[in-house]
Design a protein that fits this description.
The complex is a heterodimer of chains A (about 110) and B (about 110).
Chain A: E1 4-7, E2 10-14, E3 19-25, E4 30-38, E5 44-51, E6 56-59, E7 62-67, E8 72-77, E9 86-94, E10 101-103, E11 107-112
Parallel strand pairs in A: 2-11
Antiparallel strand pairs in A: 1-3, 3-8, 4-5, 4-9, 6-7, 7-8, 9-10, 9-11
Chain B: E1 5-7, E2 10-13, E3 19-24, E4 31-38, E5 42-50, E6 53-56, E7 65-71, E8 74-79, E9 88-95, E10 102-103, E11 107-111
Parallel strand pairs in B: 2-11
Antiparallel strand pairs in B: 1-3, 3-8, 4-5, 4-9, 5-6, 7-8, 9-10, 9-11
Classes of the chains: A mainly beta (about 110), B mainly beta (about 110).
Chain lengths: ~110, ~110
């Protein structure tokens, strides 16, 4: 059974810092790994999707990497801004379950001015 | 373009009452998902549909929970009878094939 863990659970940083959020998964037989953002009282917004054959994806100040062999993914946020404050969740899509995602508990990020 | 639309946004009801949550997926999407989010258990998949057919309902916690998708533009999640431990935020999401899922803003359910 796939389990997804995110570390740290919460993070508070000053504006401008570069930061790394970590995600680990127990079953390396994944189809892809996705990162989402959740703002308070809102649903999830997809940020990046890394296919199992890929090593990383980039979108603006965000970069996500995937290492299937070690069961890890990282989300790198460059030059953090207060608007980045949110909860970030990673999710592993199982190879055996079409579009079925297993989510981590999330990292709650606060970027203060 | 309209995203995934859920109603109601908030629901407060007494234990034992029937609760119906509604979802309108994005037009053209062929997958629809129901999730539940709590502090203790995080985000859990309850059930998902492909082309209106339930594919995997292994996450539905008990027989008190049921979900239907009578057509491509509407789905319901019912809880009957409701219990305080059902209190959570329920999300609906839709997707086209294996593209990323699009989430609604959720229904915050409180059972007293």
């Amino acid at each position: 059974k796939q389990e997804v863990t995110q570390i740290p659970a919460a993070l508070s940083v000053p504006e401008g810092e570069n930061l790394v959020l970590n995600c680990s998964f127990t079953d390396s037989a994944i189809y892809n790994l996705q990162w989402f953002r959740q703002d308070p009282g809102k649903g999830l917004t997809s940020l990046l999707l890394i296919q199992s054959s890929q090593r990383e994806q980039t979108s603006g100040r965000l970069n996500a990497s995937l290492d299937k062999s070690s069961g890890r993914s990282t989300l790198y946020i460059a030059a953090s801004q207060p608007g980045d404050s949110a909860t970030y969740l990673c999710a592993a899509q199982a190879s055996g379950g079409y579009n079925k995602l297993i989510f981590g508990a999330g990292t709650r990020l606060a970027v203060h001015p | 373009d309209a995203g995934v639309i859920q109603s109601p946004r908030h629901e407060v009801t007494e234990m034992g009452q029937e609760v119906t949550l509604r979802c309108k997926p994005i037009s053209g999407h062929d997958y629809l998902f129901w999730y539940r989010q709590t502090m203790m258990r995080g985000l859990e998949l309850l059930i998902y549909f492909n082309n209106n057919v339930p594919i995997d309902d292994s996450g539905m916690p008990e027989d008190r929970f049921s979900a239907k998708m009578p057509n491509a533009s509407f789905s319901t999640l019912k809880i009957q009878p409701s219990e305080p431990r059902d209190s959570a935020v329920y999300f609906c999401a839709s997707a086209l094939g294996n593209q990323p899922q699009h989430f609604g803003d959720g229904t915050r359910l409180s059972i007293l």
